[in-house]
Sequence to fold (329 residues):
Amino acid sequence: MKLAVLESRESDSSNSIDQLTELHKALADNLRLQILRLLKNESFGVLELCRILDIRQSALSHHLKILATAKLVSTRREGNSIFYRRAFLSDEENYHDTKKSVFENVDALPIPNNQLKKIKQIQLERAHLSLDFFTRNAEKFNEKQGLIVEHADYAMSIHDVIAGLGFDDAASVLEVGPGEGQLLVELAANFKNLTALDNSKDMLEKSRSAIDAAEHAHVNFILGDTSIARNKNVRSDLIIFNMVLHHISSPAKTFEDAAALLRPDGYLLIVDLCSHNQNWVRESCGDLWLGFDGNDLDRWALKAGLVAGQSSYLGLRNGFQIQMRVFKK
Fold:
């Protein structure tokens, strides 16, 4: 019995040494460290990383496999593409402190300007894809969105979450991407200081029409994205992304922008889909991302200086699940 226990311990020790060896081998390469640096906040597809790093796909795939084996990166399928991101480090993970230290040191290194330019170009291309969809489908957007979920299916839950935050009617509220204005009209009935932000002129006009029809005259409309709002020095107590984040080219940057737009003790409310594999929404609804894993939202919030608060989840009849996540500044 004692011999079996001893052999088991020796086997565990040997496995641990092997794992530690593989980890250090994975980190002992300039290109792999560059990959980890690029994946600080963003998720990139293989072809996108090839563009940024100016490397052949076969060579890049070799390095990505090594990083994945060492559990330094994780993958997620977005339609026909595989996207890579930093692995989420749990407290119980082997060599957690070592990996955390490496990530922190890599993050302190600047990204070369030529790579930054390529990243910006990729984000612009993603944004143009989304904007082009809304330009072509503004008249039919509500119908297309209804293929996933109707606003009425979860509107009461949104208002319950907002009411639980304890704001009075003087609070400053920003809704990003109000679409055809269903939620915006409901918010206008409860808040006197309300702003609508959308980078689609057609969709912004639709939300403006909805507000006019409801005879509200106190809503401010801004054409642009969260970067534009930052330039205009917009500040809010509550920022709401209602089924919008999956249309945005860089969700991580959006969290940073939102944190800058929030007043002290302000709240960010994200209402969006949980991760799913229904790729048809890309073509039919203009989605860039197939929902989000909760760990990704938590990581982006943490990087932006926001603290995760309450969460609620709603299952839908068509196979999707909505998550409502609150983050506090």
Observations:
- Residues 2-27 form the longest helix (26 residues).
- The chain has two domains: 2-111, 139-328.
